[in-house]
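Need a sequence for this fold. Nothing fancy.
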């Protein structure tokens, strides 16, 4: 089995009501395998994490936001998973970005990755959903981040094998 190593830069994209934009994906090789995930994606060769986040935000929402609008590195996570027969070992960085009401209204989500949907989730919705959300315990971690801000060092959310643990929340 070939394992594809991947670095990603992800954005916790909040509107003015603290709702988080998540995109919905699915694995075409597994019936019912759907999950919700944050905006962001792979860091390309020669690109730093902030540039990748800005590029991914533009590609996935049509919004252009300056890199200095992104908060400091809040979380990291490592995950292994498979999609469409390909296996990934992925390191992730998460930064917070708040949108104005006009920016949130102007967002146009029309990407291949979000073809199964998108939704602005309240923390309560995240805390009570039975759908699969990644990273796990997102409502808990987001509540802490909004209450306490980022720490001196990013919070490491853990190392996960998503194929072995496909639970909700």
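Here you go.
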């Amino acid at each position: 089995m070939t394992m594809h190593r991947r670095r990603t830069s992800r954005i916790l994209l909040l509107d003015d009501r603290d709702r988080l934009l998540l995109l919905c994906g699915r694995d075409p090789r597994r019936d019912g395998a759907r999950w919700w995930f944050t905006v962001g994606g792979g860091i390309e060769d020669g690109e730093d994490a902030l540039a990748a986040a800005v590029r991914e935000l533009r590609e996935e929402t049509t919004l252009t936001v300056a890199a200095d609008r992104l908060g400091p590195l809040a979380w990291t996570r490592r995950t292994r998973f498979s999609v469409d027969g390909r296996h990934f070992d992925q390191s992730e960085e998460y930064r917070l970005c708040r949108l104005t009401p006009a920016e949130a209204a102007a967002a146009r989500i029309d990407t291949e990755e979000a073809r199964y949907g998108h939704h602005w989730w309240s923390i309560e919705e995240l805390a009570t959903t039975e759908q699969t959300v990644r990273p796990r315990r997102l409502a808990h971690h987001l509540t802490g981040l909004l209450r306490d801000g980022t720490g001196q060092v990013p919070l490491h959310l853990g190392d996960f094998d998503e194929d072995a643990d496909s639970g909700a929340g």
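For context: The chain is about 20% helix and 35% strand.
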